[in-house]
Amino acid sequence: MKFKIGGTARDRYCTRVLFVALMIATAAAAPGARAQAWMPPPPEQRCPSQWGANDELGAANLQTPQIVLRATRMIREGQVYELGKVLDRFVPKAGARSFSLNSARTSLPNGRNQQRSNEETVFTELGQIGTQFDGLAHQALGPHLYNCIENDKVATRSGFTKLGVEKVGALFTRGVMLDIARLKGVEVLPANYEITVADMEEAMRRQRVDFGAGDTVLVRTGWGRHYAVDNALYLGPSPGIGIAAAEWLAQRNVMMVGADNCCVEIRPNPDKELALPVHGLMLVAHGLFLVENLELEAMSRDSVYEFAFILQPLKLKGATGSTVAPIAVR
Amino acid sequence: MKFKIGGTARDRYCTRVLFVALMIATAAAAPGARAQAWMPPPPEQRCPSQWGANDELGAANLQTPQIVLRATRMIREGQVYELGKVLDRFVPKAGARSFSLNSARTSLPNGRNQQRSNEETVFTELGQIGTQFDGLAHQALGPHLYNCIENDKVATRSGFTKLGVEKVGALFTRGVMLDIARLKGVEVLPANYEITVADMEEAMRRQRVDFGAGDTVLVRTGWGRHYAVDNALYLGPSPGIGIAAAEWLAQRNVMMVGADNCCVEIRPNPDKELALPVHGLMLVAHGLFLVENLELEAMSRDSVYEFAFILQPLKLKGATGSTVAPIAVR
Amino acid sequence: MKFKIGGTARDRYCTRVLFVALMIATAAAAPGARAQAWMPPPPEQRCPSQWGANDELGAANLQTPQIVLRATRMIREGQVYELGKVLDRFVPKAGARSFSLNSARTSLPNGRNQQRSNEETVFTELGQIGTQFDGLAHQALGPHLYNCIENDKVATRSGFTKLGVEKVGALFTRGVMLDIARLKGVEVLPANYEITVADMEEAMRRQRVDFGAGDTVLVRTGWGRHYAVDNALYLGPSPGIGIAAAEWLAQRNVMMVGADNCCVEIRPNPDKELALPVHGLMLVAHGLFLVENLELEAMSRDSVYEFAFILQPLKLKGATGSTVAPIAVR
Amino acid sequence: MKFKIGGTARDRYCTRVLFVALMIATAAAAPGARAQAWMPPPPEQRCPSQWGANDELGAANLQTPQIVLRATRMIREGQVYELGKVLDRFVPKAGARSFSLNSARTSLPNGRNQQRSNEETVFTELGQIGTQFDGLAHQALGPHLYNCIENDKVATRSGFTKLGVEKVGALFTRGVMLDIARLKGVEVLPANYEITVADMEEAMRRQRVDFGAGDTVLVRTGWGRHYAVDNALYLGPSPGIGIAAAEWLAQRNVMMVGADNCCVEIRPNPDKELALPVHGLMLVAHGLFLVENLELEAMSRDSVYEFAFILQPLKLKGATGSTVAPIAVR
Predict the structure, then answer these.
(1) In whole angstroms, what separates CA D153 from the centre of its chain?
(2) Helix spans in A29-176 (H)
(3) In this complex, do C116 and D140 lie within 8 Å of one another by their Cβ atoms?
(4) Integer Cα distance of B295 and B298 in angstroms
(5) Distance from CA of C123 to the nearest CA of A (A)
(6) Residue B280, SS3 per DSSP
(7) Cβ contact (<8 Å) for C102 and A123?
(8) How far, CA to CA in Å, does C41 sit from each of A328, C44, C240, C285?
(9) What are the respective helix, strand and coil percentages of chain B, to the nearest 5?
(10) pTM here?
(11) Which of residues 120 through 149 in chain A touch B, CB cutoff 8 A?
(12) What is the pLDDT of residues D265-281, one digit of tens each?
């Protein structure tokens, strides 16, 4: 099941040299005609979704007892990997996002037992902060959310009346990690690196893993090493999967795709006229969830590529997502 | 494994009648000398904790690969029970607590793909709202948190420097539910009902379940039926475990105790001079976690008494707890 | 300047009886054809505003040194009336609004002088809570804010790029209070009472006050007595000015209209097909500000009808209004 | 009333050169024995305050009708100076403070008049952000707030039960600005410049202004030019009044002292063992208010040294201060 990528230090060095040379060559090449022409599937092709015109769950429909049992079979050693980052005011915050946690003493000593109590208030973009799960109200293509639900008809001041993350439920699936940084022999992929289908297929071959419908695929870019260390760098241009890789994953009907970067996808997209195209493709066109800002270093170090992946979105009514603390268990 | 409590409707009726009669008799009795004299263990008895003078994890030390494997063996059907309540502004809010979720449109249509984005701000007592996990910084006895850590030395404006909930990690244990409301033949236990050791032993016998070190014990009172239906009632006097039951659970070295009420314990305590004594006993004296406001109705209906219990506290740095959406899987 | 409305207790009783009788008669009458036909002025009539096509200030353009001097002349005794309500979590909160203030100790004793510091976080709808000033981004008629600025072009996630309340500046004008409750001989006007032009003219006559361009007009309904006492009642149907009175005030080119109720205007409007029509009329069509939830009892008790009115909106960038603590000085 | 400081450009140059030379000399001198020995007045000297043992108002007791009339006499031209800074997320934020304003659309088009409504949520340290008024619960010396009120007895989770800023009321006083930067011939005082009694006396002489009991004194350092331009610089070491100047102001029984810097006082204090000593001296020992982060450039440009100063703290119950938008009127 496990596979040591590369053999000797020299092998790894050669891999890295070749990769960097290739990056330079790639960067010089003009973006192809395909990328420039790409558009997300139009409404008539993506609606109704494969789960019916009234569906609000998207890929969560894949969550069945069989999927749970398939995931459970991955648990052989009982070892848990924490994939959530610590959440405090030093996490990367895109745009106007903020995070503020303030402790409160709620009681002075009470009763004969001198009981005291503490709690805290938190203000933040709770659906979209830290290690986060993107739900189906997070993204729209033009006027439409997933399943061609009209954004403006279901958006209220206090949350979405449809597609809220509270409907998803816990996700308990078999997970696979594709360690692309390791495949390329680097600690961190370059900021402009688009992960391709060929990369993923090569990683699967070398790691001897495969995946299918209902599985979770985690992609390691190494970019997570900048998280809370250099937030401006972390939130700037960063490596990730491209459109082709996203389409390939969607065809395989996975439940979620996660990564150790801010957005799963390469950012900005090499096609400068597209805005976060993988987000729209996955969430809106396919109803497929994304998990961002994952902590994948320990799994990489231990060469853990197959596991049970368990994620519990908060049941925030009408929210677009949830900060989470998912685990991988093997 | 499963056990149908009561046989016929008539049996159940008799159980209920007897129980109510007993309640009236009990309420009339004066509180005993023992209850009035009870005090939490003094510092010299409770510190250092069983896990050493520097420990900040408490019962999370029980979380080992063996405990994960023990829990995994409970998963036979792949059926998941969602034990978290939906979180919105209508949940019960004790004291000055609040919850406000406000949607935000973060972008107008961008790029050729007309990408739009939504998110939301949330303001709330995030460690202590909804279905919640109580961490070890939540309660103090006099000046001391768990392991005699001085509250005022580790409390900062932005969280606790020790015992923060981010240190706990995911909890993945075998779980047992003791359905006390069902045992007593009622839908909801009366507000002043203190669950005793005898009740728990009787439930174990009739449900044919047992539990041991590192397990999670969930106690069903039925009180959760008032949640978000009649919040004033829900947050008022309510049934729960008493001190004796809590001590008995702590002796068995369980990892967590959860319930479908606000506070796990009977509230107010029959000994009016004690303030939330089970909280201090469990969290401060024993380093044992509490889980509040659980949704247990579906498990009760299906007579699910043994399961894997999985709970992922948010990694809120320095926080006293976390809202959660735990699951039971069988 | 001052005028004792009514003479003896008996006079006041008669006034009240007549008024109540009239109310019953009025309630029985069908709403007239005029009310049903009323619509706010169409864009071509209201744009550009009297202050030009690029104006963002509305009635704040009336704030000139001459207006300040005119107001200053009202200050003869140096007596200050506080017209702002205390702001805490018990204030009336319409819809999903909330208010949470949480104290924080920001430092332990520092330095030789043992300096300690406290502050607090506040979460609330700061532009629209408590005694509040409504700015020009608060209301729209169809797609348009004041001066036919398109709402969706200037609304961002973090505030409005035009018409933000930070542009208004302090308002320092002559103020007049029309005490309609007193005129009618009641402590509080009935919930369904629409204040008419005739009421205002009668109050002016009996109080011997007049007003003109750039003045502030405060209207006392008595409804403020329910504020923070019975919030459900306070926020329910309530008396206030009607459309005709609003148009009459706008024609006189006043700067602001304030009242001791939630919305200045009668709510709901007698014409059930209109939603807060005075708001749109004043803010959108005329660029004229509203001040809500004022504390007017002390001024009524002292028969203070003319004064300098000073209001300092917070300079919240891009906000729709501001909680305020205005004063009247005579 | 007005006084042109310096005559020719050459005079001003000489002043500046002398000042800078003096600064270098001063910085070289060792701090004297006096500064090292200074301590705030002990409790027995400062309590009860001059306004009695039960007083919670401090210098707000000076606010009388006579003070209002004295201030009103300053208003001769009707010209208003806005002294509040615009409040948005780019303002300087000390420590863990934050500011987040999020717009909300609260209604879709309603009624025949197609009424729409906008508002916003704000999360911030509302008592201590932007241009701010420091109330008497903001600072403590050891265990004591103003008038030896024990901090821990009046601090609750939701505000202070005594000394809350809601009690202060609007302040309407004669104001005087001492333009120390201009006196020294610089645009901005150096970061380590302590404003002395001699500086203030010299400014009074050259500006031909005086002040007395109940007046407000504003001190211009020029430091405000860094506000929201270079926040790290702004919040770092900065010029301001020293202990001697503060004591001198307190002896003159002024109501408030404001400045165009973060803290009124020089920061850090030249005596490194003292933490914000002027804060404790003014707020705790003398019950005298501070106003920070004022916008004073326009008044300096226009040589406005005498005016009516009007400040309306929000009536935030139990708060330590209030963001404000005060004005000067001449």
Answers:
(1) 27
(2) 33-37, 43-46, 65-72, 151-154
(3) yes
(4) 8
(5) 8
(6) helix
(7) no
(8) 62, 8, 21, 7
(9) 30, 25, 45
(10) 0.93
(11) 120-128, 130-131, 137-142
(12) 999 999 999 999 999 99
